[in-house]
Design brief:
Blueprint lengths: L1 H19 L4 E15 L4 E6 L2 E6 L9 E7 L8 H8 L11 E11 L5 E10 L2 E14 L2 E11 L12 E14 L1
Length: 182
């Protein structure tokens, strides 16, 4: 009987440790994914993507257990110009018929230089190309809600998003804001 009691206490303590050592699960409530890229005569083209679907497990105290998986519907690209959006959805750029989903999956996280700053290592798949990239971001929690925020650069030609051109810059500035709740 004493042995059974000790086993139960040990099992309960082990279960408690497992449950309390896991990172926090967050439900995405809204997302903003925007981009800027230079084009002809120094002008800038701005746009956005909708259709974010993701799963987030993140606790700043448990970075080893954190994961972020995100999918974005490529066809949701919107620059405010229907003719440009049609071209961007074509096989020359995003080829949304063949590659409908942009996929981002975390591999690991590190603490950044300042409070609330982190760097995530992600596998990013655009069209048929997957590359490992580092993305700096901030994470600010306010009770049961939190916000992830990031701005980073991406070379579109590395993912075969269009060809090199004197009319369109290679580097896109990507900004992501993700609001989540527990």
């Amino acid at each position: 009987m004493l042995l059974t009691l000790i086993k139960k206490l040990f099992s309960g303590a082990l279960l408690f440790l497992v449950l309390t050592s896991q990172a926090q699960g967050w439900k995405p409530t809204s997302a903003s994914i925007t981009f800027k890229i230079k084009h002809a005569l120094g002008a800038t083209a701005d746009g956005s993507f909708k259709g974010f679907v993701g799963a987030v497990i993140f606790d700043p105290k448990e970075l080893a257990n954190a994961t972020i998986k995100a999918n974005i519907a490529a066809k949701t690209i919107d620059t405010g110009l229907k003719i440009r959006d049609k071209i961007l959805r074509s096989d020359e750029y995003f080829d949304v018929e063949t590659y409908p989903i942009i996929i981002m999956v975390s591999q690991r996280f590190e603490k950044g230089a300042k409070e609330n700053e982190y760097v995530g290592t992600f596998s990013l798949t655009l069209k048929k190309t997957t590359k490992v990239i580092k993305i700096p971001f901030s994470f600010v929690q306010n009770g049961a809600t939190a916000q992830f925020k990031s701005t980073f650069q991406l070379n579109r030609t590395e993912y075969e998003i269009g060809k090199k051109s004197s009319l369109l810059g290679d580097i896109a500035i990507i900004s992501i804001t993700l609001n989540v709740q527990q």
